[in-house]
Amino acid sequence: MNKHDFLNELSSRLARLPDTERDKAYAFYAEIIDDSMEDGMSEEEAVGKLGSLDEITERIIAEVPMSTIIKHRVAGKNRGLYMVLLLICGFPIWFPILISLFSVLLTLFIVFWIVDLVVWVVFGSVAAAAVGSCIGFFLNPEFGMRLLLLGGALACSGCAILLFPASVSVTKQFALITCQLWMKLKNAMLKKGGILQ
């Protein structure tokens, strides 16, 4: 694919974005291709080293702030007098529904992340129990109690060692799911029949 075809395809894939963002991406990738060609690459090699258009498009959309997308969507609307009157008169109905919906979604999001917090609290508790048992082992003069504390320290240490990678994995998965939901929301805002249509 040559530079012209690549940039045209990129522009068509970014047609849903505001003009300023699309022009910025166009200029950025045109400059990268030109720089690569100045370094001795052919036009096709310069385009090929950029990667797939799907990944590039996804990366550009991910970098556009949500506020820019919302401003672009709202500015593109031509609301008539009837629509404005309907919004004003319906305010006592749609506003509480909107607040309730937002509250429910926010609560679900918080509960989602509290599960991750609980996993880390369990890990911290087991690790603290291991440390406490070790300290008790050295401070307690009775042999039987020291043996019990040593066993507890070993058991808690083993559990902490097993829980740490699980806790990290859960946090990574939750972060990945959160990013995917954010991207889906952005894509929904950019689509023609999107949320603000």
Overview of this structure, please?
The protein is mainly α and 197 residues long. The chain folds into 2 domains: 3-64, no CATH class; 90-190. Helices cover 83% and strands 0% of the residues. It has 8 helices and no strands. Mean pLDDT is 85; it is low at 193-197.
Number of domains: 2
Mean pLDDT comes to 85
Percent in strands: under 5%
The H-and-E topology, N to C, reads as HHHHHHHH
Poorly predicted runs are 193-197
Number of strands: 0
Sheet with the most strands, sense and barrel status: none
The coarse silhouette is: flat
End-to-end span in angstroms?
A: 35 Å
| Percent range of helical residues | over 70%
What is the C-alpha radius of gyration, as a whole number of Å?
A: 28 Å
Which secondary-structure class do the elements indicate? mainly alpha
| Annotation field: number of helices | 8
Summarize the structure.
The chain is mainly α and 197 residues long. The protein has helices at 3-13, 19-38, 43-48, 53-63, 66-75, 81-89, 91-139, 143-190.
SSE inventory with pairings:
Elements (H helix, E strand, L loop, with lengths): L2 H11 L5 H20 L4 H6 L4 H11 L2 H10 L5 H9 L1 H49 L3 H48 L7
